[in-house]
Amino acid sequence: MAYVVSGGEFNRDTNYITTRITADGRDGFPVEPDRYRLTVARACPWANRTIIVRRLLGLEDVLSIGFCGPTHDERSWTFDLDPGGVDPVLKIHFLRDAYNKRISDYPKGITVPAIVDVPTGAVVTNDFAQMTLDFSTEWAKFHREGAPQLYPEELRDEIDEVAQRIYTEVNNGVYRCGFAGSQEAYDKAYDRLFTALDWLSERLANQRYLVGDTITEADVRLFTTLARFDAVYHGHFKCNRQKLSEMPVLWAYARDLFQTPGFGDTIDFVQIKQHYYIVHKDINPTQIVPKGPDSPAGGRYPQSNWLTLHGREALGGKPFGDGTPPGPTPDGERVPAGQGAG
């Protein structure tokens, strides 16, 4: 994550490598099976979006994935989960090496997700917002049979509008709280965040999903923040007016998505907590990782209350529209037992 704190306020550096992988290859990178590698970290909410969308659309067989570990230093994300700490396809330990292949001595923060061109070993793009939209549109030829329409043309204006508010006020809003450099900046960020969460609660009170009656890109973008809220943002980032589990509508909505194939099966609570509490030494200098939150349901897995009944089916709608759920998570991509919600 690259950011600066100016006047006490957190400002994310959004100057990404915006090259796109497209069906017609107009940026020099055509969509091709087995050419590119998606590099992610389960801990990162921005990367988590790409893991979910890739799985929902069934792109696993044409776009390989590499998982960085949950922690890193100022140099780079690293592939320390792999044998020898080396990605088996890219043959690198530091993701920075792939950035430097694209831009010599890459001067900005090394971020995930990033898509790497395997033949050259160079990053093509780290523009996470465009990445998932392109999975839905530019990669359509390779979608699985029954893949959902996450970005249908007739709803794009509304999806974009809702997603933009979610990004500025919620996805990025929790970071503005956590990295505020003054009381005034924190208070302002806190109020903006919970105003937006209240707006979302009202919007979702009588409709199952954010836009239309099926899951769209907007739901993916909100879910990855909600999934981290009680484990990290409530305490670590001081977003503590309420826990997610104390906001009835959003809690039921989040559980509905969590229990939908392709969402909850990508969440690794252990790695999420390790990342935030160990990497953010300016916020948590002891680097102690909290044991909780405990599950009120008393389950054996962390936060097994994610698997309790949510009742959102009563609002109608179908998660995948006329499509079908994705199949089982491929071998080598499953969240380790005991690190999810069951």
Structure description:
The chain is of the alpha+beta class and 342 residues long. The protein contains nine helices and six strands. It has helices at 45-57, 96-102, 128-137, 156-171, 173-178, 183-204, 217-233, 248-258, 269-279; strands spanning 3-6, 9-12, 36-41, 64-68, 114-117, 122-125. It has a four-stranded mixed beta sheet with strand order 4-3-5-6. A two-stranded antiparallel sheet has the order 1-2. The protein is globular.
The number of distinct β-strands equals 6
- Runs in which pLDDT lies below 50 for 5 or more consecutive residues are 297-301
SSE succession: EEEHEHEEHHHHHHH
Give the CA-CA distance, first to last residue: 29 Å
Range of strand content: 5-15%
Q: What overall geometry do the principal axes of the alpha carbons give? A: globular
Question: C-alpha Rg, in Å?
Answer: 19 Å
Look at the helices and sheets and give the structural class. alpha+beta
Largest sheet: 4 strands, mixed
